[in-house]
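Summary for the steering committee. One of the milestones for this cycle was to obtain a three-dimensional model of the protein with S-adenosylmethionine bound, which we needed before selecting residues for the alanine scan. The sequence and ligand used are listed below.
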Amino acid sequence: MMGKKRRLSWAVMIDGRSIWTRNAVLKHSQYGESLRRFKGTEYRRWDPTRSKLGAALSRARRTQYDLLPEEGDTCLYLGAGHGTSLSHIHDQVCGADNQKGGRIIAVDLSPRCLRDLVHLSKIRPGLVPVLGDARKHSAWGVMVSTKVDWLLQDVSQAGQAEIFIKSVKRFLKPGGKGLLSLKAASERFTDTNEREVFNQIREQLEDAGLTVQEQIDLHGLEDNHCLYYITK
Ligand SMILES: C[S@@+](CC[C@H](N)C(=O)[O-])C[C@H]1O[C@@H](n2cnc3c(N)ncnc32)[C@H](O)[C@@H]1O
């Protein structure tokens, strides 16, 4: 039995401290997460220790209802990895058989990740896996034919903010939402503590003309990480 619930969207529900998404691929668990039914509909548990976006949804104070893309949105995901967070975003943006008509372009540098993303795209229509480097738009930018509503970057490498700013400028619609998951240890700051790194990155985003709606410290769920939610 689920306890007291509230909805973040048509597909995302909060039950106590747990987040659940309406499973677009019935009886299929993507990364070992638990499945359960509520009023005849199957949901998957979104593990906030395995997903920075899941952690940010758990930790956001003011913007919890704003972080997710809308159903049917066009999205760009830079550093999609093996598809853990992506699968939950797909539940929200596309749903079963892409009934919501969404599109998520999922870019990753690693051929091993791409193999998993290609497999995922076969069972989750609306996903478009792309083997590419987030820093080199010229190689894959053509796959993003219209500006996107929602952009998430989670690449954990040096220069994360610069990569994000360039990508937001090129691919995000005016009024669109951008999420930067930042790993402090990936940045080359010397003698600077984590909090200072997070604040310096915030300034960098603001200096680039982006509005930081919330800076969400993920400590305790995803240590050494912060997620910035910006609008353009
Ligand atoms: C922390 S993992 C992503 C986890 C994933 N976002 C999730 O929550 O399920 C970081 C990923 O970024 C990819 N990556 C690193 N540098 C990249 C770059 N320059 N362009 C594209 N992908 C990159 C890595 O191959 C890795 O899969």
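Key point for the committee: The CA atoms of residues 216 and 227 lie 5 Å apart.
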